[in-house]
Design brief:
By secondary structure, the chain is an all-alpha fold. 74% of the residues lie in helices and 0% in strands. The protein is built from 15 helices and no strands. Helix 6 packs across helix 8.
């Protein structure tokens, strides 16, 4: 992001993006990874208040994803410009951080199979961080989406939004997770919905009341599903059935928070700088190797030395530490390794662009 772009951005929305990232980190801090005796399968229902709280923390991840998409959509709707440097650095950062993890783990003597190593060398292709891959596609196609929005009248836009919300925000959630759906469709659904509200009637709603209603509805979803799971076997492993960022209730929570944040307009250089590193923090805290080895080891230490009755609280503390450490590493990375990565990737991408232009000229002249 350029300095000029940062200065134009409403810091209230940037603050919301940081909040979204933090609750994503909370979800990723749960003992959900690995196969040890300390790993918890949160799909299954249990009669335990602390467990229900951890389920809410699990849902935080999808709420955070939806908030981040909504906030990004708000900014991308303002222009059709695609910055090639931004695309290049997202790819470069993903590659460098993934390779750094592989190098560190091999130096520590941890044996990694060939498949895992190859995936780390091609993080975008193999969707090591699915969210970053989808965000990258949404970014490079947002100009097309904007032109589509500009070309439609209000009724056409509304019909498309309602169709997408019904198919991918309701039917896909209720019927099956395989209902002709991919996560990118969820991104586009939120983008088009934010675009409609921004273009036509964002001030006509009581967003605070909408948020409160949607959040209570989500809590009811979680509590009722968990309760039914303790009574009926058919629901016993369905606690996370609704835990998808394209869940219409979660989408409403995200969009209502966005428009609540937009009521407060202010600018903070430090806040915008911190928010500009959101994707770096995401890449650092949720690498596959970190999830497979380090997080399970941390939970082993926690469970062996502390009372397991406070899992939700330990998760919150773990998340705060992970968030701060990831942020610190992101700052160090941005001021050191990233500069070299920028130089090398700029050279590599320039050469690739030259090759692409040569191939296209040959094809064009056939």
């Amino acid at each position: 992001m350029s300095k000029a772009e940062q200065s134009r951005r409403n810091s209230s929305v940037e603050l919301l993006k940081l909040l979204a990232l933090f609750i994503i980190v909370i979800s990723h801090s749960l003992p959900r990874y690995g196969t040890s005796q300390y790993t918890v399968d949160f799909n299954y229902a249990r009669v335990n208040l602390d467990y229900v709280l951890t389920i809410v923390e699990y849902y935080f991840g999808q709420i955070g994803n939806a908030i981040f998409i909504a906030c990004s959509s708000w900014f991308l709707l303002e222009h059709n410009r695609i910055r090639s440097d931004k695309v290049r650095m997202i790819v470069t950062d993903s590659f460098i951080i993934s390779v750094a993890y592989v190098t560190l783990f091999l130096m520590l003597g941890i044996k990694l199979d060939a498949k895992t190593i190859v995936k780390q060398f091609f993080p975008i292709i193999f969707e090591n961080n699915w969210f970053v891959s989808c965000y990258l596609i949404m970014y490079v196609t947002h100009g097309i989406l904007n032109r589509l929005i500009e070309a439609m009248d209000k009724m056409e836009h509304l019909n498309i939004v309602l169709g997408c919300v019904f198919l991918y925000g309701i039917l896909e959630i209720v019927v099956s997770s395989d209902y002709r759906y991919c996560d990118l469709l969820g991104f586009f659904t939120i983008y088009l919905l934010v675009g409609y509200i921004k273009k036509y009637n964002r001030k006509e709603y009581d967003w605070s009341r909408i948020f409160a209603t949607a959040f209570i509805a989500l809590l009811i979803e979680i509590i009722v599903t968990n309760y039914c799971g303790t009574i009926f076997d058919a629901f016993s492993d369905k606690v996370l059935r609704w835990c998808r960022f394209n869940n219409i209730v979660i989408i409403v929570i995200a969009i209502s928070l966005l428009f609540i944040a937009l009521r407060f307009s202010f600018y903070s250089k430090r806040l915008n700088y911190a928010s500009s590193m959101s994707l770096l923090i995401y890449l650092i805290h949720e690498n596959d190797l970190l999830s497979m080895y380090i997080k399970p080891a941390m939970w082993k230490v926690i469970c062996e030395n502390l009372n397991n009755s406070y899992l939700a609280f330990y998760t919150l503390v773990f998340a705060i530490i992970l968030f701060l450490v990831s942020g610190l590493i992101a700052v160090i990375y941005k001021k050191s390794i990233r500069k070299w990565g920028d130089i090398i990737s700029k050279w590599a991408f320039t050469r690739l662009h030259m090759i692409y232009e040569h191939i296209m000229s040959v094809v064009y002249n056939l």
